């Protein structure tokens, strides 16, 4: 580890200049690797590849902390981690491949699907893409057809999740450094995402927002997350349930708090001030 007084802060995030800036989507030759190896700290973009992330983590303190993201990738990885870490979430079955739904192999275990309706999610997807409400056999056939096409592309894995009836909103809780910001995404129907016409509400049910903040703060303390958007629903008893964690997330709801870029720069400066 280089001495702090002579070592630069190296940024690969175009929103932060650092002492030295490297383009994360470029190449890493001897010069670039030498710069990284001398860094006092490394700031990475949200789109960082896992190979570069783990290299940076070996070389210097790194922001953001994506250990959880890359140890438990996708919705399948998150579902497994939620169970392992006892994180409250809807009842979920994780499938590493589509085979348990197809039942076309003699060694495939029998998968007992929940009663209709239930939710089916591809391993990778955002803004509601790759997420289907399965209300009957026809919905299931259509979703399986889509999942087959994804599996052919090498995008394997899916989760089967409990449907929470009557939801008109979900709570987005965004963590940026030490800041925790929340707002409701409200829209009648299954999808509440802003990209699908959902509306932002900052004031609805502050009691539930406080419960959501408490849960997310504890999760981040346990697993080290410091830059992510958490989607929460609530049980009829008002207990928060984590639907998924988004490590690249929408920014519209952050505008009243200074906007994403200002919040990110504040988080990076706080991270750097906390270094020994």
TrEMBL record:
Gene3D superfamilies: ATP-grasp fold, B domain (3.30.470.20). It holds the Pfam family RimK. InterPro entries: ATP-grasp (IPR011761), ATP-grasp_RimK-type (IPR013651). GO terms for molecular function: ATP binding; metal ion binding; ribosomal S6-glutamic acid ligase activity. It comes from the Bacteria. It comes from Thermosulfuriphilus ammonigenes. PANTHER family: BETA-CITRYLGLUTAMATE SYNTHASE B-RELATED, RIBOSOMAL PROTEIN S6 MODIFICATION PROTEIN. GO terms for cellular component: cytoplasm. This is Glutathione synthase. GO terms for biological process: SOS response.
